[in-house]
Amino acid sequence: MNYLHLDLQFFAADEKTEKATPKKRQDSRNKGQVPKSQDVNTGFLLLMVFGVLFLLGSQMKSTMTGMYEHAFQEYIHWDVTEMQVHTIFVEMTWEISKVLAPIMGVAIVAGIASNLLQVGIMFTGEPLKVDLKKLDPIQGAKKIFSARALVELVKSLLKITMVGSITFAIIWVNKDEMMLMSQKSVQAALAFFGNTTILMGLASALALLILSVIDYTYQRYDHEKNIRMSKKDIKDEHKNMEGDPQIKAKIKEKQRQMSASRMMSEVPDADVVITNPTHYAIAVKYSEDQGDAPYIVAKGVDFIALKIKEVAKANNVVTVENRSLARALYKNTEIDQPIDEQFYKAVAEILAYVYQLEKKI
């Protein structure tokens, strides 16, 4: 029973039930794994392109018809020479470019805007890296028959149905007028079919945009599900970010040792060591170059206090016992910092006593 309980705990720890951490989200983004719907791109692109056709359609039609009129009125009479063919090619290319440039420009802007709207600014080459796992036929078969593939199939059928229904409905509404176009002029027929096409495009684009909202919501849900983490993953990530506790403890211990070693090297230069006398030891130094107040060069309790006193004795540094002052300095003053103003008088008296002993005054 104990083994079974441990197994259940192990599987529970590995179950991906937790929301992704900010680091996990950033790592996924760096790999190019972001929630994104292609339908947003498609719908936005179609809406912008057909919007341009709606606004500039008459001008484009005039440019195209003018190009044909010029071709059959002027070019048809030209001799077929290398120079004449080159001239025709350049002029035709320029006229066609004037028609296509607004459409291509808007398509590029729409593509960039729809991507920025979904994922923001992102540069990564991770998806371009060669991954041999993608060539695995078993994994490929699993993707084909996965739940995601089924969702994509349903989504594609829904798009085809929506666009087909909208197109059929518009044609059906205009069928009578469409039949009469054979009796109209070419200009009227072009205007009618152009407007009808733009209407079908705009309606289809709006329908795709509505569908893309649903698809983007699903893509976000699926992305959040895929980047979920287990409790063990979160602990491992925290451990990697903060460092292994044992390693951190060793580093801190090493830092304490280095700090103590550096502190001990300052004791020989101290003017006096104030002691408890057994538990506390505070090494004090006064130098006009360092400031107007004495400052602490070393302090410690128990074993470190004993080491400070040993170093002081070995270097002929005077040791003075003052229990209350030693405790107060230890608690209220840091190493390499001047003593607090409240201790000036007591420390000054001790330093005066030390200077007298050393015959400095």
Helix content: 55-70%
- End-to-end gap: 82 Å
Average per-residue pLDDT, rounded, comes to 80
The coarse overall form would be elongated
What is the string of SSEs from the N terminus onward?
A: HHHHHHHHHHEEEHEHH
Gyration radius, in Å: 42 Å
Largest sheet: 4 strands, mixed
- Content-based structural category: mainly alpha
What is the count of distinct domains?
2
Strand coverage percent: 5-15%
The stretches of 5 or more residues where confidence is low (pLDDT under 50) are: 1-12
Protein name: Flagellar biosynthetic protein FlhB
Family: Belongs to the type III secretion exporter family.
Transmembrane segments: 40-57, 156-174, 186-211
Region (Disordered): 17-36
Q: What features would you highlight for this structure?
A:
13 helices; 4-stranded mixed sheet; single chain; mainly alpha; name from scop; disordered N terminus; transmembrane; 361 residues; elongated; 2 domains
Report a brief summary of the structure:
The protein has 361 residues and is mainly α. 68% of the residues lie in helices and 6% in strands. The chain has 2 domains: 34-121 and 134-226, no CATH class; 247-357, 3-Layer(aba) Sandwich (name from scop), CATH 3.40.1690.
Q: How would you describe this protein?
A:
Keywords: Bacterial flagellum biogenesis, Bacterial flagellum protein export, Cell membrane, Cell projection, Cilium, Flagellum, Membrane, Protein transport, Transmembrane, Transmembrane helix, Transport. This protein has 361 residues and is mostly helical. The chain folds into two domains: 34-121 and 134-226, no CATH class; 247-357, secretion proteins EscU (name from scop, 3-Layer(aba) Sandwich). The longest helix is centred in the middle third of the chain and has 41 residues, at 186-226. 68% of the residues lie in helices and 6% in strands. 17% of the residues are buried. The chain has 13 helices and four strands. It is elongated, with a radius of gyration of 42 Å. A four-stranded mixed sheet has the order 3-2-1-4, with helices on both faces. Helix 3 (38-73) runs antiparallel to helix 4.
